[in-house]
Amino acid sequence: MLDSTLAKVSPPERPLPSLRLLRTVVRNPIEAWPRPVYEEPLFRSRLFGRESLFVSDPDLIRTVLVDRAESFCKAETMRRALRPALGDAILTADGAHWRWQRRAVAGIFRPERVAALVPAMLAATERTRDRLLAAGPDATIDLASQMTRTTFDIIVETMLSGTRGIDAARVEAGVTDYLESTSWNVAYALLKAPGWLPYPGQRRAERARDYLRAELLRLARERRAAGGGGHDLAALLIGARDPETGQAMSDRDVADNLLTFITAGHETTALALAWTFYALSRHPDVERRLVEEIETVTGGAPLAPEHLEHLPYARQVVQEAMRLYPPAPVVVRSALETLSLGPETVTAGTPVYVPVYAVHRHARLWERPDAFDPGRFAPEAARARHRFAYLPFGAGPRICIGMGFAMREAVAILAVLVRALQVAVPDGHEPRLKLRITLRPEGGLPARVTPRGRDPESPAGVASR
Ligand code: HEM
């Protein structure tokens, strides 16, 4: 039942020669990671003589992300890929400039504040549910973009007080167009090529970037002109002061952070959900148990915020989907000084990769690594595992600030949708995994959606099949 037929990357058995490696990095970097990344603790990669280090061993991952976090900064590859759009905001900044931005927004992610946002999450999901039901059973929808729409509505509603006038479809297309070109920035950074070198799709990516940056700047200015009041993310950013200089953020800084939160905060969760529905559509036994849990906890009533605390299996399903398909499948750093990492010496400036996708399927860390089994996240099984064998949200001081928000949101969306409708990804369709900063199903995720029938024999009202 818990077979291993789900879509996955087929790694090359041996490191690719430089030219092929470069081509693969541009097309789909995750396909360039060779088998040793999934089987060995460390792997050194060479591209035209330039070295990078892949760290798959959990103890060494802890060294990079936690114990020696100060000896690393965000990698040049990611900076070159993301800074043109996101500026020097919380995701892309380092050192003191990062720290004060993180402190400025931390309050909004306190558990009690996040809990207060759940009704908005449920309401947005109910709109999606109704939209999907209205599409009818014969329609093929793109589940990935439906999830993106839902999480976009939620991020705008909860972080920007539902700011009107943001064109969701254009922003979504803008983010996709921009990310599409990032693998060129990554490849050029690996080669230490100059930033002005042109690349295919550049005009489109720049148009997308300019649109996104102008929209968010407009929004930041409007909010400041209106007095910057309220309790949302925009208000926190406008009110923040650098503890060292006492300076407020400029409109540009506020806009860069808003764009960072919008992009980091909706696409990732949407992907987690799209992959979850894909895995469920191949594992009806898991889906059935999930629906049973929801019906038992709610007693058949509409899902309310307090129910979310009592859906441990739903949480496990999302966790397992993010093991197989981590929305952020690689975390990259650059060494600031020369240091030892296990048996290796890492010289200053070396890019160090934590290949989360490969760690989550590593032969030494997981039994039947490609099989979908939410039981791995039952409390005892999870406790028995190395903390750094599973890190969809990263780790250490740069751990995802939205982790609590994302988990509540994902469980809420999954629970509302899965009890109301059955999502079927056509049997012959095996999505190709594509790395563009995030892990996307290439070309989206086609699916058919049917209302879930109720079994009158079952007290829990569980779906009949
Ligand atoms: C399933 C959903 C999500 C996943 C898998 C995810 C994953 C990650 C990862 C791996 C990092 C660390 C990157 C690194 O160390 O280089 C990160 C950072 C970040 N995430 Fe998330 N994220 C998710 C949802 C969210 C949400 C909902 C928000 C905001 C509402 C958010 C905002 C951020 C921000 C601002 C950072 C940068 C934090 C810093 O550098 O201090 N993320 N995320």
UniProtKB/TrEMBL annotation:
Origin organism lineage: Bacteria, Pseudomonadati, Pseudomonadota, Alphaproteobacteria, Hyphomicrobiales
Gene3D superfamilies linked to this entry: Cytochrome P450
Keywords: Heme, Iron, Metal-binding, Monooxygenase, Oxidoreductase
Segments of this protein annotated with the region Disordered: 444-465
Pfam families (alphabetical): p450
Family: Belongs to the cytochrome P450 family.
Cofactor(s) the protein requires to work: heme
Positions of heme binding: C400
GO molecular function term, any single one: heme binding
Name this polypeptide is given: Cytochrome P450
